[in-house]
């Protein structure tokens, strides 16, 4: 009788295990067709020009030091919620926000680590954003920063931004920086 019970148990295990999918314990992903995400057949190339208004001065500062070091040098970290402007005029139309932080990451010159999202709030790109993560050597007349991603109409964005300072108040630190951005992205069909 014990033998029939053992055989029955083994058969039951074999039959029931055939219904359990065999998944490696290390598998955590699967491939999907790009059509599942509403992507078009080819990426779109978009060029944008806007102005980043960094305002550490009071009142209504939009750039606040959250970690300070002697002389505002290496190691200083500044959190930002800066306006993105349509033109280089401080009173120009706001088209979005630059939100994130920059940190003094170079001991020998002014080199910033930029971790910033450009969040657009008007027009076709309202609700979409671009993400920047890279080095900004601000003493250079033109700096190149990588675009590493995006949301909304900028899904899977990749590209670069060329930044150049248009105005700087050496007393307050307020600045307007022109950004010329080129990105490849997939505009979703949603």
TrEMBL record:
Location of the protein in the cell: Secreted, Extracellular space, Apoplast
Gene Ontology cellular component terms for the protein in this record: apoplast
Swiss-Prot/TrEMBL keywords: Apoplast, Membrane, Secreted, Transmembrane, Transmembrane helix
Pfam families reported in the protein's UniProt record: Dirigent
Assembly mode: Homodimer.
Predominant location: secreted
GO annotation, biological process: phenylpropanoid biosynthetic process
Keyword Transmembrane: yes
Family according to the record: Belongs to the plant dirigent protein family.
Function: Dirigent proteins impart stereoselectivity on the phenoxy radical-coupling reaction, yielding optically active lignans from two molecules of coniferyl alcohol in the biosynthesis of lignans, flavonolignans, and alkaloids and thus plays a central role in plant secondary metabolism.
Residue spans crossing the bilayer: 6-24
Domain of life: Eukaryota
Name assigned to this protein: Dirigent protein
Organism: Castilleja foliolosa
Keyword Aminoacyl-tRNA synthetase: no
